[in-house]
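Box S2. Input/output pair 1.
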Amino acid sequence: MNPYGYMPMPAQGVPGQPATPPRPVVEESYIENIFRLNRGKMVTVYTTFENNKEWNAKVFRGRIEAAGRDHLILSEPSGKRYLIPLLYLDYATFDGEIAYEYPYR
């Protein structure tokens, strides 16, 4: 603090160096984050696999165990687990409400 009662402005970077953009303070609304917010809930996931002669589209149903940037892990009540690349995701449906708001907002 200086004698004038205001805080000095932070440095804007080093001259000649590219400025680093500020990082977002809150999570952004990406699909993997929505799956994470709903961990433990039952979901039905609809996928499409192009050029697959056995099955072009497939439906997965299970409880959300985890979600990463590019994948979703579901488990069936029988114990069978699926690792689904989000690349193939068309859409998902939930049995109840979808948690969408982050708890720290």
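Box S3. Input/output pair 2.
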Amino acid sequence: MARPRTRTDALAHEIRDAALEIVRSEGAGALTTRHVARGAGTNIAALNQLFGGREGLVNAVALEGFELLAAVLPSATDDVRHGLMEYADACRRFSRAEPALAELMFMRPLAGPIPSGHGALKCRQVVIDTLQASNEADADAVETDAMAFAALLAGLTVQERHGLLGRTEERRDEVWRAAVEVFAAGVLSGR
């Protein structure tokens, strides 16, 4: 009789969920294979087989973060200024609700190909659709603008988390608003 398979997709989800909880409660620095395996009720060998080690696990947690972010983003709109501001506001609310996860997502590159239809691609697509709806630029220019906007928001997110956008809430709001307004103005003027 064949031995039952113990390293299943269900176990991979349990490990990823345990890792996500550790990031949320203790920060990304606490994300060790031993700690995560213990939290998921498994062993390091299973974690390594399913994720290829710590880096694969970190990547899986970051990808899950993008799924969560995609779920709270607004739909694309043909009003570039309004659409980009709504997107930035949603991203900022997410990063404030999930500070350690947002930092993990934005401070490292994603490894390997991103699966079709994944939240990381949905996040970019909302920006692309907004830019294309009111911009006659070619697809490459729109893609470049979408990547630049993602980089802008990632930078604002990390800078705010580290207290580098001002001492008051009003000042931080002003910096976010100004950055998005300047970006939108540049896109609308054709750079």
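Caption for Box S3: The two ends are 67 Å apart (CA to CA). The CA atoms of residues 29 and 191 lie 39 Å apart.
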